[in-house]
Write a structure and sequence with these properties.
This protein is an alpha/beta fold. The protein has 21 helices and 14 strands. The protein has two domains: 233 residues, no CATH class; 255 residues, Phosphatidylinositol (PI) phosphodiesterase (TIM Barrel), CATH 3.20.20.190. Strands 3-4-6-7-8-9-10-11 form an eight-stranded parallel beta barrel, surrounded by four helices. Strands 12-2-13 form a three-stranded antiparallel beta sheet, with no helix packed on it. Strands 1-14 form a two-stranded antiparallel sheet. The protein is elongated. It is found in: Membrane.
Length: 574
């Protein structure tokens, strides 16, 4: 006689199957395990964590370095001789790698939260290794070719630090759910103590991080200095070809208060505007003087320079991805630009009554004007008729002689010195890169009546930080962007920041304590079991419950059927 009895059932666990399947290709129940993770897999988990942290820093670096993408592309041009936007492949690979590694990190945390054994698939191990090595190579390359740009990270913390702190606090607080679950499930007291102490140490460190975060934007709003003046660096090079009259006219349309240019000396002693040592990138010298295209720009005479087109390259290379925003008229004006002389720039500045600062490049020893380059430039300044007070003179060579001939020029230094030395030399202004000066130094120079112009400032967050620091003016390739920043991006008083800081810490601590208590209550009220094991049911479950009945267990009378029952049971489990 056969007796029927409700059988064992499996519950579907699609989410768990996806987590373990994607992470370690363990899609079947019998492939999963609640055993402790092996030492080898723990090592790979640490490698994954290190790769994630490194990619996070790398991703943040390139995000904040957006201010200097043009500078990076120019460095690449110096080495390759061909202009291209090298940031595009870097940003694409960084975003893809960071997304991939972050996804694996989330899956690993899910494994820990569910008590599953970590077992990263070999394909993912190859992917993690490739991401790690690629990032390390990128870091080394930047360190060798663009090392000064690493300063953007601590500088950007002045703008993002308070918000990054709150984000990190929220992430670590959320992580307490996993930590509390591990502590509640652990059987060894020593393991529980170590995990809790490690987590609390990290949490306490985050609570105290604001003690070491400083930002000039945490200040009394009533003490905010006037909005820094904006100089057009090479005019408005994002909207028109750099160092051309059209570029400077575009900058004037954006209400800049000054213009900045790079000046070289031609063979016949005419100062002209050119940033690069040669003419290949910004003119059509390859077409007009193909046999001289590799020559230095200063070895051309002014007549030859006037034959070159200095605007078509802008439409062709589109260095700032802005060419498609130009109107037909603007494109025509751009395509017909020629090399601009210093005298033309000074006459334009004189007409609009705005300041001009230029960096004068010393010609090589074999140049005909090697000994007269200062006098040639000074003569061009005087002949232009521009008021001397509008010209910021930067060369250190023969500065005393220049002061005698043109005492009205604003003496400006490109080298940071102490205020006393500058005043002794008759220098009243500094022109420095934004990473060369700190907030405390800005305050010191301002107190000693030394005005500061900081370059190159293209991003609103950097402009806001320098504004709060008290900088009097900035030089920018993007005056059209800074013109839309009438007030610092954010500004709060020290009391407001302290209130936010303390409130965030107290809320985080309360949530962490609550999560630990809840996890302990949950684990103590749950009987320890393996989610993968077969569950014995006392009643028959209806079909509306989403379960799959694997097989009925047959109970036969007689010893002869015992072997058959055992065989059926084992087959069903497998």
């Amino acid at each position: 006689m056969v007796k029927h009895q409700p059988l064992q059932v499996y519950e579907r666990q699609l989410c768990l199957s996806c987590i373990t399947g994607i992470y370690g290709c363990r899609w079947k129940r019998y492939q999963r395990s609640h055993d402790d993770t092996t030492k080898w897999e723990l090592l790979w988990s640490l490698i994954l964590l290190f790769t994630f942290c490194l990619l996070l820093v790398w991703f943040y670096f390139w995000w904040e370095a957006h201010n200097d993408y043009n500078e990076f592309n120019w460095f690449l041009y110096e080495r390759s001789g061909k202009w291209s936007d090298g940031t595009v492949p870097i940003l694409a690979t960084t975003a893809a790698g960071f997304t991939y590694i972050t996804f694996l990190m989330v899956l690993a945390l899910c494994h820990v939260a569910l008590g599953q054994q970590l077992n990263l698939h070999w394909l993912h191990k190859i992917g993690v290794t490739a991401a790690l090595l690629t990032t390390i190579v990128g870091v080394i390359s930047v360190n060798q070719t663009w090392s000064q740009e690493w300063d953007v990270i601590p500088i950007s913390f002045q703008a993002t630090g308070p918000f990054l702190h709150i984000g990190a606090l929220a992430a670590i607080t959320a992580l307490s759910w996993i930590v509390a679950g591990q502590v509640a499930r652990a059987e060894k007291t020593m393991f529980q103590v170590v995990v809790v102490l490690l987590y609390l140490s990290v949490l306490l460190g985050l609570y105290l991080v604001p003690l070491y975060l400083t930002s000039p934007c945490i200040m009394d709003p009533s003490t905010l200095k006037p909005r820094p003046k904006v100089f057009g660096h090479q005019g408005a090079p994002m909207l028109a070809p750099e160092n051309t009259l059209w570029s400077f006219q575009r900058a004037l349309q954006l209400n800049v208060t000054g213009l900045e240019a790079d000046v070289a000396i031609s063979v016949d002693g005419v100062p002209f505007l050119m940033h690069d040592p040669d003419l290949r990138r910004t003119t059509d010298v390859e077409k007009v003087f193909s046999d001289r295209q590799m020559n230095k720009a200063s070895f051309f005479n002014w007549t030859d320079l006037q034959q070159l087109n200095a605007g078509q390259w802008f439409l062709k290379d589109d260095p700032f991805w802005t060419a498609n925003t130009l109107t037909t008229r603007e494109k025509n004006l751009t395509a017909n630009q020629s090399v601009c002389s210093l005298e033309q720039l000074l006459k334009l500045a004189s007409y609009h009554n705005i300041s001009v600062v230029f960096r004068l490049k010393k010609p090589p020893p074999q140049h005909p004007c090697y000994h007269s380059w200062i006098n040639d430039t000074l003569e061009a300044v005087l002949q232009s008729g521009v008021p001397q007070s509008l010209v910021m003179w930067t060369p250190d060579e023969q500065r005393a002689q220049v002061r005698r001939v043109a005492p009205g020029l604003t003496q400006t230094s490109l080298v940071k010195r102490d205020p006393w030395t500058l005043q002794k030399s008759g220098i009243s202004r500094l022109l420095l890169r934004y990473n060369q000066i700190s907030s405390s130094e800005i305050i010191n120079f301002t107190r000693n009546n030394i005005s500061l112009t900081v370059y190159t400032v293209n991003e609103p967050w950097l402009y806001s930080v320098l504004w709060c620091s008290g900088v009097s003016s900035v030089s920018s390739e993007a005056p059209h962007i800074l013109s839309k920043v009438p007030y610092p991006v954010w500004l709060m008083s020290p009391n407001e920041y302290s209130l936010i800081w303390v409130s965030a810490d107290l809320i985080s601590f309360a949530v962490v304590i609550g999560i630990f208590i809840l996890q302990k209550y949950r684990m103590s009220g749950m009987r320890s079991y393996n989610p993968e094991q077969i569950m014995l049911s006392a009643t028959v479950r209806t079909s509306s419950r989403d379960v799959n009945v694997m097989k009925e267990k047959l109970i036969f009378s007689g010893k002869s059927s015992l072997a058959l029952v055992s065989h059926l049971f084992i087959s069903a489990c497998i």
